[in-house]
């Protein structure tokens, strides 16, 4: 790769040869004298040096000192063999050369990922779990508030991590290296779904697993070597056409849209919350995402897909999410359970119903993962709504000596809603007969 960049950039680099403070490296690229001194020691760490030498930064003459230099008085500034440097290269630092990308990242939901520390997720990790689990678990994806010592070195209780919502000592939020892994900072690597999979997988946000079972993921595995992910310009339908990756849909350019580092700019639904709502400016966001889809799909397909998704999300909201939330709230208001989180069994049931199962269902529907939409999603939501949440509500009311509260719940949320009446009245006999007739006709045998 180094030679390829040299051939392409030889003329351009020659024009910079006389820049003040710059010296020619041994292979013909301009390297500052400060970076040359860094390399004198850090060549004992050949991995990071070799990664950098294969990077676009190397070809542009951007070296160790250009990224790590700091000003005296900054909280993470440290004296390092006569130079003032900082260990963390923050989005603010990257923004000196990449201002648009840094600004978009800072305005994105990714940059706010550290807010988990002040949420119920944080309560689970830090209190119910424990600080060591948070350090190697939560913060590795969500980020920490990085603290420094008096000499500018970083507090090991808050670093290392490349959490996407990390709050850096300079006040900036985020970590560019969460996606563009140092020290190569490769576009190609960041475009691969595996980069997103470090954080977007698991029981509560299985986007990576959903993608893998979708037709998009199947096509990616089949044609990964044909996707030209190393190209500077990477426009779906022009530079590649066999499959999309995560970055295709959420970040990359189309013929009518530029690249964006605000990963939420095309999301018209909030699929993370207990009850899904449209995001701000959802019509524009939906139009932008449909524009991406249209690189490979016709309008009837795209419109039909979003009609199904909208119907699914509204169904999840109205049949399960809203009733579950209101049932738990009523139990609190009536004094059946406490208003503290995670001290009653129904708190845990409700949490997993929306936070794990409900999210799996919605993301399965949004990303064309049928198994996650149903078996890992709505099936689990329904099973635990009927066999755990409602029975626990009944038992809690009985323990509290308030059985009438459960009767009110059933009257309002179950008997009062036709989609739930099977739970108390049983299946419609006509429906059972229809199923029997279907299988008798299909398999030509009696069904008992």
From TrEMBL:
Extent of the signal sequence: 1-23
Pfam families in UniProt: Cytochrome_C554, Multi-haem_cyto
UniProt-listed InterPro entries: Cyt_c-552/4, Cyt_c-like_dom, Multihaem_cyt_sf, Multiheme_Cytochr_ET
PROSITE patterns: CYTC
Keywords: Heme, Iron, Metal-binding, Signal
Membrane-spanning residues: none
Name used for this protein in its record: C-type cytochrome
Organism annotation: Desulfuromonas versatilis
């Amino acid at each position: 790769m180094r030679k390829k960049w040299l051939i392409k950039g030889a003329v351009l680099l020659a024009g910079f040869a006389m820049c003040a403070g710059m010296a020619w490296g041994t292979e013909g690229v301009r390297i500052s004298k400060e970076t040359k001194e860094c390399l004198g020691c850090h060549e004992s760490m050949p991995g990071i040096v070799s990664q950098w030498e294969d990077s676009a930064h190397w070809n542009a003459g951007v070296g160790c000192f250009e990224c790590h230099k700091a000003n005296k008085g900054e909280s993470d500034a440290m004296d390092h063999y006569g130079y003032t440097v900082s260990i963390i290269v923050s989005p603010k630092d990257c923004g000196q050369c990449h201002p648009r990308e840094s600004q978009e990242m800072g305005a994105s939901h990714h940059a706010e990922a550290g807010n988990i520390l002040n949420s119920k997720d944080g309560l689970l990790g830090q209190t119910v779990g424990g600080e060591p689990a948070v350090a190697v678990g939560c913060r590795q994806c969500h980020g920490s508030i990085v603290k420094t010592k008096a000499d500018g070195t970083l507090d090991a209780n808050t670093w290392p991590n490349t959490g996407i919502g990390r709050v850096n000592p300079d006040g900036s939020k985020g970590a560019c290296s969460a996606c563009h892994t140092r020290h190569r900072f490769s576009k190609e690597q960041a475009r691969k779904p595996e980069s997103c999979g470090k954080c977007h997988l698991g029981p509560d946000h299985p986007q990576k697993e959903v993608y893998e079972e979708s037709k998009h993921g199947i096509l990616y595995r089949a044609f990964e070597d044909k996707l030209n992910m190393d190209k500077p310009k990477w426009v779906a339908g022009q530079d590649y056409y066999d499959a999309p990756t995560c970055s295709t849909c959420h970040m990359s350019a189309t013929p009518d849209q530029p690249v964006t580092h605000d990963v939420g700019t095309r999301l018209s639904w909030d699929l993370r919350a207990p009850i899904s709502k449209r995001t701000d400016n959802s019509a524009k966001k939906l139009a932008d995402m449909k524009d991406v889809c249209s690189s490979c799909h016709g309008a009837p397909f795209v419109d039909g897909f979003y009609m199904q998704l909208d119907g699914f999300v509204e169904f999840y909201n109205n049949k399960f999410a809203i009733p579950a939330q209101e049932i738990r709230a009523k139990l609190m208001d009536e004094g059946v359970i406490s208003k503290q989180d995670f001290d009653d069994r129904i708190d845990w049931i409700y949490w997993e119903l929306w936070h794990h199962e409900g999210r799996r269902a919605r993301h399965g529907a949004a990303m064309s993962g049928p198994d996650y939409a149903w078996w890992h999603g709505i099936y689990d939501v329904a099973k635990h709504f009927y066999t755990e949440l409602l029975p626990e509500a009944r038992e809690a009311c009985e323990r509290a000596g308030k059985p009438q509260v459960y009767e009110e719940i059933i009257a309002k949320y179950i008997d009062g809603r036709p989609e739930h009446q099977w739970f108390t009245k049983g299946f419609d006999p006509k429906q059972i007969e229809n199923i029997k007739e279907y299988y008798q006709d299909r398999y030509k045998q009696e069904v008992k």
